[in-house]
Amino acid sequence: MNAPLFDFLPDYLEAAFPPPRSFQDPAIDSIIAGRRAGHRAQMLCAPTGAGKTYLGLKLCHATLKTGKKATFVCDRKSLINQTSAVAATYGLHQHGIIQAKNPKFNMDLPFQIASVQTVMERGWHDTNLIVVDEAHTLYQTMVDHIKTTKATVIGLSATPFSRGLGKIFTNLINAATMHELTESGELVPMKVFSCTRINMDGAKTADGEWTDKAAAERGMQIVGDVVSEWTKYAENRKTIVFGSTVQHCEEMCRQFNECGVLAEVFTHQTKDVERDRILEEFAKPSSAIRVLISVEALAKGFDVKDVGCVVDCRPLRKSLSTAIQMWGRGLRASPETDKTDCILLDHSGNIVRFIEDFTHFFYHGLESLDEGEKLDKSVRKEAEERETAACPKCGYKPFFRRCMSCGHEPAPQAAVAALPGQMQEIFIGKNRVASSEQDLWNQLCSFTGSTRSKNPAGWAWRLFEQIAGHRPPNSFRFLTDAVPVDPAVRRKIKSILIARDKAMAA
């Protein structure tokens, strides 16, 4: 049974949100369209800087205005107060907080901000909309409830790569890509330094991933290099460091402090009083804390915009999502502090191990939740086994097919035959398969539109890029009308899919 309509709407009609960015309203429109099409549980993929909290709270507000109930679910203690404070700035002051011992507990209000841990202990309450922040971290009780509830469910995640998400959420929406957010100035470019690397040769693994204990033991051997190379490349930048275990983090903290750099450790073992003190201080532009060190407590949803350096000391072989979450902590733009880039000091080798898949995700986002799941399944080669090429145009490293700094992308040989004027015939091998780029684009739209792809426009975009050797013009729009698809185009698409499957299997 749906939750009853309320006879009063506290202050919800008076709420005022900042003007949306260009991609935010279309993302919400896509969610509404998905719900009308029958998708009760949908996933919104929104990178760091895309405003996931803004989008989630705006969806809650739309529900509250109709007199129904909405719940925003967080999976971190630190995110409860952060979300509550943001909601208040938008005018959504009257909300309850479902969290143990929280003074704002009030189940009489139609808008709740809930700790997933508390909800799991106390049981679910009646609501019409559930917005799940960091939805790639799903607990079994959450999964069971999503499958059985009649409420509309919207998952928010920068990295929806977790196993089984495609069986829970039936529709995927890409709000924006990391590249688009960098181009628009929401994110800053990442400047990478490959530093003294943790030697993981022969280190113990479990299910294909290095164990935290093994990674920490190897990481202990280069702590002095971590401190000295930070001093060399990033001194005075507000910094987040990621280690493999609490003990690893504590040792790095000790050595930073011995060198006169005020550092603090922030992990699941940090007591609530200390958490509040550390976060309040670190959020200040003039924070005395220069280096904050963590395992995972800071990797998801933690937002301090003027962080100018991320130090990655947590070697990974499979979890691209964890790497992206760590690196993303420093990518938010901060015009008020004149931040122009973020330095990544890579002691883990992760940037080279994941460069191929990260480059693709940076530019294109996800085609499907199943694709995201595969990205966290594959064991990547060791960094020494990969070529660490530099961009032939600007020198940025590491480089794979397309530069994440300047966007340079060498064109495949003989993919496009240029003719005088604006017209370009498209050849695959010696066969002319399209009279122009527009003709090729129309064929690809027709092909992807006839499949079960959840993002046919994005797939057409990627196929065009692989066949023509460059991105389709911005003026091209997805074509819904069916047109004949040249057999050679179909064969080329098949070969691309086979090559992709082989690469994923490898």
Distance between the termini: 48 Å
Q: Which stretches of 5+ consecutive residues score pLDDT under 50? A: 1-5, 411-423
Number of strands: 18
Q: Outline the biggest β-sheet.
A: 7 strands, parallel
Shape: globular
SS strand fraction? 5-15%
> Please, what is the CATH homologous superfamily of the largest domain?
P-loop containing nucleotide triphosphate hydrolases
Overall CATH architecture of the largest domain: 3-Layer(aba) Sandwich
The residue fraction in helices comes out at 25-40%
CA gyration radius, whole angstroms: 24 Å
If helices are DSSP runs of H or I spanning 4 or more residues, what is the number of helices? 18
Number of domains: 3
Subunit organisation of the chains? single chain
Strand order of the largest sheet: 3-4-2-5-6-1-7
Which class of the largest domain in CATH terms?
Answer: Alpha Beta
* CATH structural fold name of the largest domain: Rossmann fold
Q: Mean of the pLDDT scores? A: 87
Structural class: alpha/beta
